[in-house]
Design a protein that fits this description.
The protein is mostly helical. It has three domains: about 1-120, Serine Threonine Protein Phosphatase 5, Tetratricopeptide repeat (Alpha Horseshoe), CATH 1.25.40.20; about 210-340, Ankyrin repeat-containing domain (Serine Threonine Protein Phosphatase 5, Tetratricopeptide repeat, Alpha Horseshoe); about 340-454, Ankyrin repeat-containing domain (Serine Threonine Protein Phosphatase 5, Tetratricopeptide repeat, Alpha Horseshoe), CATH 1.25.40. Helices cover about 55% and strands about 0% of the residues. It contains 24 helices and no strands. The protein has helices spanning about 1-5, 10-15, 30-40, 40-50, 65-70, 75-85, 100-105, 110-120, 135-150, 170-185, 195-220, 225-230, 245-250, 255-265, 280-285, 290-295, 310-320, 320-330, 345-350, 360-370, 385-390, 400-415, 430-435, 440-454. Helix 13 (about 245-250) packs antiparallel against helix 14 and helix 20 runs parallel beside helix 22.
Length: about 450
């Protein structure tokens, strides 16, 4: 009750008496959930300081973050507090809606905050698909990359003999202390310099500190600090704990000036992180169009591979990003590629309907791909069309908004999708709409079939 009413002093007193922060009431609400209801930032902060189970759900399946975003006027400060405390925005409630989905539908501003959080946390992973989306062309590119890429472990090895050891302030202080101690003891022999091990340890600490500053400067756009660290001799292509270079990080954060500066310093434009992210893939996933354009102007490979070996065009199609597809296409990217399952980019865009809800972006993407002469009725190796995939033919459980799917199905049929086609098992789009209980979608397809019969 104290949390719900936002009584900070009472909450503080109860916490000092070791009140159980994870205790749930008859509705399943915890102290954190009630604090979020109160919209009192200081109370939420006090509860979070106790390290509660941040994603504990109430009887409706709602987490604290979901409740925060369902509010009439969500608090941006509280949303950021919850995300910084590692709240999961992808957990769904009993209505199959996640905090991220709610934000995308009702709070675009907060959707961007969540998306940035997920990008930072997951290093621009692509969670869209479970299937393998490499095509034959991509396998060839990957084989070439593997032949030319140094072992990842070698990236972090240091050849000590290549370093010229220079005294630092800490090393010099150590020498002074030794001299002073020996003078007091009456020892006047020649003072030996600290061992190489001391210098190595000092250098390692200094390098770690410099690298931390380096990556923070790249993400924040601090050109002055970047230039200073370069003058101090930092490796411009050094890696962070996820194998990213400063260029990759800057691209993902839309720091065009930093990207331009790093490229002028000969940063590796095709460097890949541990999960396969590159500068160009990061700019595509982050929807940083001007950065992507700059990279392509500087001869980044438009047909290269990003995370999980997805082609850049696949990443853009999977993100419903027609503008990025256009940029890639103008710079030589192959938008007519097919993966091992013989699925083209229209198939890929249809799969993204499970994860996105911006119908306008979806329509623009489908229209762009159709304008590139891709076959909207192309069937993959299982006989599935994009329309069938949109209706959930590859899913046992398909958690989508029926209204959105119905709208997209209507659009695809309008631009040429054939609703009567069946796959290798004899299943059609309407069979899948019926199986997943997508009543509005089923109605759209039935109307189209009836119209075709007349």
């Amino acid at each position: 009750t104290a949390c719900l009413l936002g009584h900070g002093k009472k909450v503080s007193t109860l916490l000092s008496l070791n009140a159980a922060v994870n205790m749930q009431d008859s509705m399943g609400n915890t102290a954190l959930i009630e604090a979020v209801h109160s919209k009192r930032k200081e109370v939420v902060t006090m509860i979070l300081a106790q390290k509660p189970l941040i994603d504990l759900c109430n009887n409706l399946g709602e987490t604290a973050l979901i409740i925060c975003l369902k509010a009439k006027n969500p608090s941006e400060d509280i949303i950021k507090l919850l995300l910084n405390a590692d709240a999961d925005p992808e957990i769904t409630d009993n209505d199959k809606k996640s905090a991220w989905l709610i934000a995308k539908q009702k709070q675009p501003k907060f959707a961007k905050i969540i998306e940035k959080h997920l990008n930072d946390k997951n290093q621009f992973e692509l969670p869209f698909f479970t299937n393998d989306y490499q095509d034959t062309h991509n396998q060839k590119v990957q084989a070439t990359d593997n032949a030319e890429t140094v072992n990842k472990n070698d990236l972090f090895k240091t050849n000590d003999s290549s370093y010229k050891i220079e005294p630092t302030m800490d090393n010099q202080q150590a020498v002074n202390n030794m001299q002073e101690a020996r003078s007091k003891e009456g020892q006047h022999d020649t003072i030996r310099k600290p061992s190489v091990a001391v210098f190595k340890q000092t250098r390692k600490t200094s390098d770690n500190n410099n690298q931390s500053e380096w990556f923070e400067a790249a993400k924040s756009g601090n050109l002055g600090k970047l230039n200073r660290l370069i003058l101090q001799g930092i490796d411009i292509d050094c890696r962070d704990d996820k194998g990213c270079t400063a260029l990759i990080r800057a691209c993902g954060h839309s720091r065009r000036a930093v990207v331009s500066f790093l490229l002028q310093q000969n940063a590796d434009i095709e460097a890949r992180s541990n999960n396969g992210s590159t500068a160009l893939s990061s700019s595509i996933i982050g929807n940083c169009r001007r950065v992507a354009g700059l990279l392509l102007d500087k001869k980044a490979n438009p047909n290269g591979l990003g995370p999980a070996n997805y082609s850049y065009a696949t990443i853009a199609a999977a993100s419903w990003n027609d503008a990025m597809l256009s940029i890639l296409g103008r710079n030589g990217a192959d938008v007519a590629i097919c993966n091992k399952k013989q699925q083209n980019l229209i198939h890929i865009a249809a799969m993204a309907a499970e994860f996105y809800n911006n119908i306008t972006n979806a329509k623009n993407t489908f229209q762009f791909l159709l304008d590139q002469n891709l076959d909207i009725n192309a069937q993959d190796d299982e006989g599935n069309t994009a329309l069938m995939i949109l209706c959930g033919i590859q899913k046992q459980k398909y958690t989508v908004d029926d209204r959105n799917i119905a709208t997209l199905v209507h659009f695809l049929i309008k631009i040429g999708a054939a609703p009567a086609l069946v796959n290798n098992n004899g299943d059609s789009a309407i069979d899948m709409a019926n199986y997943h209980k997508l009543q509005q979608t089923k109605g759209v397809i039935m109307n189209a079939l009836a119209w075709n019969d007349t």
